Amino acid sequence: MSEPLVAGVDGLDSAMLAAWERDGYLHVPGFLSGSDLAKLVSLVDEIGRTPDGDRELLQHYELVDDEVRICRSEHLIDGHQLLRELLTEGSMVAMASQLLGEPAVLYKEKINYKLAGGAGFSPHQDAPAYPFIDTHTTCMLAIDDATAINGCLDVVSGMHGELLPMDDAGCIRSDVADQMQWLPTPIAAGDLLWFHSRAPHRSGPNRSEHDRRGLFCTYNAASHGDLRHRYYEEKLEQFAHGTEGDTTRVSLIGDFQGRRPSASQIADHERRLREQA
Ligand SMILES: O=C(O)CCC(=O)C(=O)O
């Protein structure tokens, strides 16, 4: 049984909570470092090489230079005790509870890989992609440094009060997004970036030669119920009936801009993963 990761931050102070209320997002430096961060990095590497369905994972792929590349893994905690402990016990869930103002429970969790050359995300709010209740808070735990070149998140401050007009994909209408003041939020590996589910955000493609991976965990107030199982059931149901398009579908909205590989390209890729394992 592996040792739990040791976090360098165990709570948010009143200045941080005030910044959160004002901005709808919050950068918390130094959550993981040293050997704890290294352990998480190697687990993310291993998850990225695991075929869809193994260890309960839901895997999503994009085409980068016509090669199949992992772009998202989700439904992580059932097959990975280290992640289950990190995301459902201790300081991560304690911070989510502070931000929600009451005890929090995990709603969903994912890794966005954005490997070198990987695609970005259109301007959106998460709330339309997260059914059943209105408010969630999400944390990006940076696995690699996230920079303006490799596709860190851009956010808009103080716009987390209401849902904005959407296009057919469920993203923020471009005439509205074009008027907003977008702030790049570069963060270092091991840092956290918390953001409200109505905080507008977007991210560019990875224009560097290095990967920009992030572990994203989303919480809701426990008084609204433990909705994680229901969320994944709903997602699988919607994906089963979804239409095929040119972009990879990773969400209940169409925010991801990555190109979709064919089913046979994915099957070949996963066959090679199994041969290499
Ligand atoms: O990973 C990114 O660059 C953006 C993530 C995001 O906006 C999302 O998953 O909703």
How would you summarize this macromolecular structure in one to three sentences?
This protein is of the alpha+beta class and 277 residues long. The chain has helices at residues 14-23, 34-48, 81-88, 91-100, 174-177, 228-240, 263-276; strands at residues 25-28, 58-64, 67-74, 104-112, 121-124, 137-142, 153-155, 183-184, 192-196, 201-203, 214-221.
CATH architecture assignment name: Sandwich
Shape: globular
Order of helices and strands: HEHEEHHEEEEHEEEEHH
The rounded Rg comes to 18 Å
Secondary structure: helix percent: 25-40%
Count of separate structural domains: 1
Please mark out the parts with pLDDT under 50 across 5 or more consecutive residues, or reply none: none
What structural category characterises the helix and strand content?
A: alpha+beta
**What is the topology, as strand order, of the major beta sheet?**
1-9-6-11-4-3-2
What ligands does this structure carry? 2-oxoglutaric acid
Residues in β-strands, percent = 15-25%
Q: Might you state the CATH topology name? A: Jelly Rolls
How many H/I helices?
7
Question: Which CATH first-tier class would you pick?
Answer: Mainly Beta
Number of strands: 11
Spell out the CATH superfamily.
q2cbj1_9rhob like domain
First CA to last CA: what distance?
A: 22 Å
The major sheet is characterized as: 7 strands, antiparallel
